[in-house]
Amino acid sequence: MEIYSPSVTVIYPAGVLNAESAYRFERQLVSAVSDSHAKELIVDMSRVESLDNAGLVSLMSALNAAKAQGKRLSVCSVPPAIRIVFELTQLDRIFTMVDQVPTAIAA
């Protein structure tokens, strides 16, 4: 996790986000949402190698937690193979998805 500015926190997950790692990932995301004073959280997916249903559920939990606290959560730098997962599940319609961190901040 990185504080980009007082109002923006960027989270950098890495590796494989699957059933084995999803619980820990979800706890980190939800903790970042609740502990951060930032009104905007950005999940930079550039270091994520693969994502399965459990990883998507973790992201959805964090999105719901953010919305409940009046915060915004978006994803950026999504690799093409992972973007397809978002599109197939139609979660690209639910998440704000942008190309890079600066673009996410400006959105």
State the domain count: 1
Shape: globular
Strand-residue proportion: 25-35%
Low-confidence stretches: none
Largest sheet: spatial strand order: 1-2-4-6-7
Q: Note the run of SSEs as H and E.
A: EEEHEEHEHEH
Helix content: 40-55%
The largest sheet, given as strand count, sense and whether it forms a barrel, is: 5 strands, mixed
Please state the oligomeric state of the protein chains shown: single chain
CATH superfamily: STAS domain
Class per helix and strand makeup: alpha/beta
Mean pLDDT: 89
Question: What is the CATH class?
Answer: Alpha Beta
Radius of gyration over all CA atoms, rounded: 12 Å
How many beta-strand runs? 7
N- and C-termini, Cα separation: 20 Å
Looking at the overall shape, the CATH architecture is 2-Layer Sandwich
CATH fold description? Transcription Regulator spoIIAA
Q: What's the number of helices?
A: 4
Please provide a written account of the structure.
The chain has 107 residues and is an alpha/beta fold. The protein has one domain (2-101): STAS domain (Transcription Regulator spoIIAA). It has helices at residues 22-35, 53-68, 80-88, 101-106; strands at 2-5, 8-11, 15-17, 40-44, 48-51, 72-76, 96-98. The strands form 2 sheets. A 5-stranded mixed β-sheet has the order 1-2-4-6-7. Helix 1 packs parallel to helix 2. The protein is globular and about 30 Å long. The model has no long low-confidence stretch (mean pLDDT 89).
